[in-house]
UniProtKB/TrEMBL annotation:
Coiled coil: 4-31
Annotated protein name in UniProt: Large ribosomal subunit protein uL29
Family: Belongs to the universal ribosomal protein uL29 family.
InterPro entries: Ribosomal_uL29 (IPR001854), Ribosomal_uL29_CS (IPR018254), Ribosomal_uL29_sf (IPR036049)
Keywords per UniProt: Coiled coil, Ribonucleoprotein, Ribosomal protein
Molecular function terms from GO: structural constituent of ribosome
């Protein structure tokens, strides 16, 4: 998700996307430990998306 897309979401939507992204990140890390993913850069991208969501959520809550 791009920063511009995240800015247009409400705080509740960001929390929902954040929970979804964290669940996907956990699942992806586990799958990568069992057998390497075809594209392991997806893990890094998802981690950065989670950070973007957390940052925007903090900004909206202030």
């Amino acid at each position: 998700m791009k920063k511009a897309e995240i800015k247009n979401l409400s705080a509740e939507d960001i929390q929902a996307k954040l929970a979804e992204a964290k669940a996907e990140f956990t699942k992806m890390k586990l799958a990568h430990r069992i057998s390497p993913l075809e594209n392991p850069i997806q893990i890094r991208d998802l981690r950065k998306t989670i950070a973007r969501l957390n940052t925007e959520l903090t900004t909206k809550q202030q």
